[in-house]
Structures are given as structure tokens and as C-alpha cells.
Design brief:
The protein is built from 18 helices and twelve strands. The protein is an alpha/beta fold. The strands form two sheets. A seven-stranded parallel β-sheet has the order 3-2-1-4-5-6-7, with helices on both faces. Helix 6 packs parallel to helix 9 and helix 12 crosses helix 16. Pathway: Antibiotic biosynthesis; vancomycin biosynthesis.
Length: 413
């Protein structure tokens, strides 16, 4: 079966699909990932096909408008939607082209244009999401808040936000539908149709971290993580190996694909906190270009988390879904510093799992509080012990199995 995975977003929104795609290819399918052009090398190096989508997310987040997206608020999420909507006409054309010849489409949350293409071309499809998006009474929509609004309020807010989030894209969506010979639609009608069709969504999240809500329908399920595939032949830099061997386990610090300004000041803040806690640091530059200097710090570029994290005393990160998952898989405690989007949600999960003493919101971050958290998370055995327990549970899960089962049903079909 020829499968196209439409993966829209940052590095962390694309990398997990390299693992899922590799598993699908091992099972005999032909897999291509449609993603933003800067990710082509990452996808092709892992033996998968690549279909280009427009827009450079890194450039967008680094712009003045992009900086406004790096906030934890509903207004920031509205700006995020408008940032993408500017490119949605070109994205629609590219998605249509990327799915040419496909027998099955797998769509990330922001790859929803693929649902209209699937309808127009008669191609079966499914969602492959990395964040919880279906309305539930068990927690509120992370685009609004992490504080419960009550069961009714949580569901109502999620429905409202989900529908409102589609509004900036309606023109491009209906232009695409017209090209495909489909009638125009509204956001409300779109979601009702998906429910009527029992459109399946597989959530690439560990059920140890987030169990499937009891009020979700059976065709929406949390199945387990899809781990990014490491580039074949990758070897760690000798200077990194030497640094790790030269002293006690350091802490890892990164803001991932976030690109806040004043990274020199941020680097000093992180290093000051770690030094106050008596810890060495591996500082990942990330998209923001974090910097630091000293015998107790090593600045690195992209390095596979599955290799690096097990050698860390703790991880300090922005709370992105992929970095959160990698830290839990490695069995190391965490100090999340969430900026925006789903990051506060995952930070809250880390605290509830008992692997973190608490989240430190990025926009209120200061060295003293971070130093206190680092001392606590690296000296109190409860955090490390709980992290090992969670890692052991995650190790028993295989998030690709349910996806492969669904494909088998389609093939028998």
C-alpha cells in the first residue's frame, strides 16, 4: 500500500512520523512524508519518500509576528492560526499534489487539508495526532487553559475552540473543495461529518502518560508513542563523549524548536541556575541558538534524544510533546519551562506523573527558582525513582501496532 503521511509543523511535529513510517515500510508498505521543505534531508536519510510542503516554520517563528506566537494564551494560539493561514492556499495545492497516487493518507492535526483531499479523491484516511484534540470532560482544551472547567465546561470549550480554530482557514479550504468538485463546508459541518463517518484517529501518546478518556468514541484512541528514527550511521561527536566521561551526569537544557530572542541572556540564566545547583550542563542550541561557555558546559546541535537522555541527571526543556516523550522514555526526571501551545499541558502531565517538582513558565523564568528545582529533581530520589517506573511501563508499549491493524483492515477491505 502506498501511504502518504501529511506532517505539518516544527521538527517535533515531523520526527515521530519517521519512526511510524519506518515501521510501516518494514511491514511492506511504501511510505512518503509530506512536510515542510527544510525537513527533506531528515526524512530521506531515514529511507522514506518525501513530498514538499511550503512554509519555513523556523523563519516564521523567528519573525516579529512569530515571536508573538511564543506566548501561553488563547490569543497566542489565534496568532499561530493566522500565521499558518497566510500560507494555506499554497499549502492546499501542495497537499493535493503530495497525495497523488496514494492508497491511504495519514494526517497530523495541522494536516487536515488532507481530509478534504481524501474526500474528493475517494482515498481512505486516518488521523495520526500527537496532542489530544477531541473534546472530553476529563480535561480542558490545552489551547485555552490547563485548569479544569468542569466536565461540561471542558467539553463545551473544546468544541468551541476546535470550531473557531478552523475559521482562519475556511477560504482556502473551500477553494480546495471547489477544485476537487466538492460542495463548500463549515467547520461545524466538517466535524459532524467526521463523527458520522466514525473517522479514526490514532493518538501517538503513551497511555501511561495519558489514558484514553472514557468519553471518547472507540474510533479515537491513545495507542502509544511513535519514536523518531535515528539517522543511519549516526555517531556522537567525540567532544560530547569526552564531556560526558569527564564528570558526573550533567543536565540537558533545550528550548527545542522554539526561537525566543535574547538567547545570550537565556543561556546565562540556564547556566547560572545549573551552577548554583552544582551541575554540569549539556546545552542544545535549538532553533533559538542558545549559547554558553565554560568548562562545565558543552553546547551541542541536534543529537538523538534516545542516545543522549539516558546519560543525563535531568532534562530541562520547553515541554514539547516529543521532548517530553523522550525524557520519559529515558527514565530521567524533568524541569519543564513551557512557552506556548500544548507545552503547559505536557508540563502538567510531568508533574502529575511525579517525575517533576513543578513547571516553571518560560516568561516568568528566573535563575533562583530554576536552581531550586534542579537541586530538588537531582537530589530527591522520588523523582528519579518515579521516572524509572514510568519508563519501564512505556517500554512495554508499541504505538505502531494499532495503526498497522487498521491498515490491515483497509487492505482486506
Amino acid at each position: 500500500m502506498r501511504i502518504v503521511i501529511v506532517a505539518v509543523g516544527t521538527w517535533g511535529d515531523v520526527a515521530p512520523y519517521t519512526g511510524l513510517g519506518t515501521r510501516l515500510q518494514t511491514a511492506g508498505h511504501e511510505v512518503a512524508i509530506a512536510a515542510h521543505a527544510p525537513f527533506e534531508a531528515m526524512v530521506r536519510e531515514r529511507g522514506l519518500g518525501f513530498r514538499p510542503l511550503p512554509m519555513d516554520v523556523r523563519d516564521e517563528l523567528g519573525s516579529a509576528q512569530g515571536q508573538q506566537v511564543l506566548r501561553t494564551s488563547p490569543l497566542a494560539m489565534a496568532r499561530f492560526a493566522r500565521m499558518y493561514a497566510r500560507h494555506w492556499g499554497a499549502m492546499a495545492e501542495a497537499t493535493e499534489a503530495a497525495t497523488e497516487g496514494a492508497d491511504f493518507l495519514m494526517l497530523s492535526a495541522m494536516g487536515f487539508l488532507g481530509q478534504h483531499v481524501a474526500e474528493g479523491k475517494g482515498i481512505p484516511s486516518a488521523g495520526v495526532y500527537l496532542q489530544p484534540l477531541d473534546p472530553t470532560g476529563e480535561f480542558p482544551p490545552w489551547t485555552v487553559t490547563t485548569r479544569s472547567l468542569g466536565r461540561w465546561g471542558n467539553r463545551a470549550a473544546a468544541r468551541t475552540v476546535r470550531t473557531a480554530g478552523m475559521l482562519p482557514f475556511r477560504g482556502a479550504v473551500n477553494d480546495l473543495r471547489a477544485r476537487l468538485g466538492l460542495r463548500p463546508t463549515t467547520a461545524g459541518a466538517f466535524f459532524r461529518r467526521l463523527d458520522e463517518q466514525r473517522w479514526p484517529v490514532f493518538y501517538g501518546i503513551s497511555p501511561t502518560v495519558l489514558r484514553t478518556p472514557a468519553d471518547w468514541p472507540p474510533y479515537r484512541r491513545v495507542v502509544g508513542y511513535w519514536w523518531p528514527q535515528r539517522s543511519p550511521g549516526w555517531e556522537p561527536e567525540p567532544r560530547l563523549v569526552d564531556f560526558l566521561a569527564a564528570g558526573p551526569p550533567p543536565v540537558f537544557v533545550s528550548l527545542g524548536s522554539m526561537a525566543p530572542r535574547d538567547t545570550e541572556r537565556l543561556g546565562r540564566l540556564f547556566l547560572t541556575a545549573a551552577r548554583r545547583a552544582g551541575l554540569r550542563v549539556v546545552l542544545q542550541q535549538g532553533w533559538g541558538g542558545l549559547t554558553g561557555a565554560g568548562d562545565d558546559v558543552l553546547v551541542i546541535g541536534d543529537t538523538p534524544h534516545d542516545w543522549l537522555f539516558p546519560q543525563m541527571a535531568a532534562v530541562v526543556h520547553h515541554g514539547g510533546a516529543g521532548t517530553t516523550a523522550a525524557g520519559l522514555r529515558a527514565g530521567v526526571p524533568a524541569v519543564p519551562t513551557p512557552l506556548t501551545a500544548d507545552q503547559p499541558f505536557w508540563a502538567q502531565r510531568l508533574v502529575r506523573l511525579g517525575v517533576s517538582p513543578g513547571a516553571l513558565p518560560f516568561h516568568r523564568l528566573e535563575a533562583g527558582a530554576l536552581a531550586d528545582s534542579l537541586r530538588k529533581v537531582t537530589t530527591e530520589e522520588s523523582f528519579a525513582g518515579r521516572a524509572r517506573e514510568v519508563a519501564a511501563a512505556i517500554a512495554t508499549e508499541d504505538g505502531a501496532d494499532r495503526v498497522l491493524d487498521a491498515l490491515s483492515s483497509v487492505a482486506r477491505g
